[in-house]
Design a protein that fits this description.
The protein has 12 helices and 28 strands. By secondary structure, the chain is of the alpha/beta class.
Length: 474
């Protein structure tokens, strides 16, 4: 649960926007100078006492980052000044506290406003909380620990499980040279989440991490690495937010999920960055034989988001499902979607994407379905819908299909439209205000998405969108 309050067990959940926009005075042990350099990369690695192979990965990332150009095929990134971003900040707080009472009061109160400690008590198997560049709180329930579940922050995992990290960290899933911002991430990553679920262990309550940026012109580059061993299952939830400033911030995290034979993973995320944040995140999964990967994504905040969770179906009968929603208001461009590579026979994928735009915002679906030669009996279904709430907004769909095998089934549907005047008239004639009628139409539009979220998160997503509609100026 993030930034919400449950009232007497009912579904009426009130969300205070100030919970997200509140910020603390800076209280840091270390704050790098703006910009990126080899000296900074080496300093980060030394500070974390990393092995030489990780430093070499960082230096490779820096080299590739300097070589690759800024992407020009999507939203305009020309106003993002990468030399003004602060790439590493250490809060004045103990790392990996096991008790919230050990977290400094100002930081603890931030997470209390966001509802994290209460959610941990009521509905979660473990929680990690990152503030700026470091994890300040991390805990896992003992019964899961006794089953061999590993839930650590990435810095600690590198020390305690170096072989696993070396095997999976930015190797086959997210190569360092995938694009400019994956390379940047490799160079300056800090914090994040490491999860290992042993064979045949089914974690029936979610694990959650929450990533919070506080400082002006800050960058956050957490790395999430999830390994779900054969026959195991896990549901991981990630929340993100930042206060709003006039200066731009950058989020370029990375998520890697390895779903081994007969395993199942669900990754749910509600990203509510402030409207001065560039959200250039990379999320990818490797899905093995008979395994299932499920993505559930909600994107509301940020000035620009470029995010396309990707599944690589490398084992026969592997499956990937994606459901996502994006809301774009004034001065926002939400460029989101999903990519699936069918690389084995009998693989299947399903994509449902919903975009909402208002007050000049742009929401776009950008996706790819690729079915390689020899992947017989593969199936894919894509539906992307865009809803515009006024005449000033845009809803776009940019789907790509690459099918190199005949014995497959591929279906694609796309619809872009405005809120119908007849719908509004009908609802308003029944006593609803225009705002209430609009909210009802939007709630129906996103219903396939929110029903896949746990109850508290589903209601939160609805209320956040309602708040965006209420606070926008027509």
């Amino acid at each position: 649960m993030t930034g919400l309050q449950v009232i007497q067990g009912e579904q009426n959940i009130e969300i205070n926007r100030e919970n997200y926009d509140h910020y603390n005075d800076e209280n840091l042990n270390f704050k790098a100078q703006p910009g990126i350099s080899e000296e900074l990369v080496r300093q980060i690695s030394k500070d974390k006492n990393e092995p030489e192979w990780m430093l070499n990965k960082r230096l490779t990332g820096l080299r590739v980052f300097n070589e690759k150009p800024i992407p020009e095929w999507g939203p305009d990134l020309s106003e993002l000044d990468l030399n003004s971003i602060i790439y590493f900040m250490k809060p004045n707080a103990k790392k990996n506290s096991k008790s919230w009472s050990d977290v400094p009061e100002d930081i603890r109160k931030t997470y209390e406003r966001l509802g994290i400690p209460k959610a941990e008590q009521n509905a979660l198997g473990g929680v990690g909380a990152q503030y700026e560049s470091e994890i300040v709180y991390h805990n896992l329930k003992k019964d899961l620990e006794d089953k061999g579940v590993v839930f650590l922050d990435m810095d600690e995992a590198l020390q305690k499980h170096p072989e696993l990290v070396k095997k999976y960290f930015m190797t086959t899933c997210v190569p360092i040279n995938l694009h400019k911002f994956s390379a940047l991430h490799a160079a300056v990553w800090s914090g994040g989440t490491f999860i290992y679920i042993p064979k045949n262990v089914k974690v029936d309550i979610p694990l959650q991490a929450y990533f919070r940026m506080n400082a002006k012109k800050g960058g956050q580059f957490e790395h999430t690495l999830i390994i779900v061993d054969e026959g195991a299952e896990v549901h991981y939830i990630e929340g993100c937010s930042a206060p709003q400033y006039t200066e731009n911030s950058l989020h370029a995290g990375c998520v890697e999920v390895h779903v081994l034979k007969n395993a199942r993973a669900r990754y749910s995320s509600i990203e509510n960055w402030s409207k001065n944040t560039y959200n250039l995140n990379t999320k990818r999964s490797m899905v093995h034989e008979n395994a299932i990967m499920e993505w559930v994504n909600g994107n509301l905040g940020s000035h620009i988001t470029m995010l396309y969770p990707c599944s690589m179906l490398i084992g026969k009968n592997a499956k990937s499902d994606y459901i996502g929603i994006a809301y774009a208001g004034k001065d926002q461009f939400q460029d989101t979607g999903c990519k699936v590579y069918h690389l084995a026979p009998n693989t299947s994928s399903s994509i449902i994407s919903k975009g909402i735009s208002k007050n000049g915002g742009i929401s776009s679906y950008r996706g790819l379905i690729s079915i390689k030669k020899g992947c017989i009996n593969s199936k894919s279904s894509v539906r992307c819908d865009g809803l515009m709430l006024d005449n000033a907004s845009k809803a776009l769909t940019c789907p790509t299909m690459e099918v190199n095998e005949n014995d497959v089934k591929v279906a694609h549907e796309a619809a872009v439209g405005k809120v119908g005047e007849d719908q509004l008239f009908y609802l308003m004639s029944r006593g609803l205000s225009e705002e209430e009628a609009t909210n009802m139409i939007v709630s129906g539009f996103i219903e396939p998405i929110v029903k896949e979220l746990p109850l508290e998160y589903a209601v939160e997503l609805n209320r956040l969108i309602q708040l965006e509609i209420e606070n926008s100026v027509s």
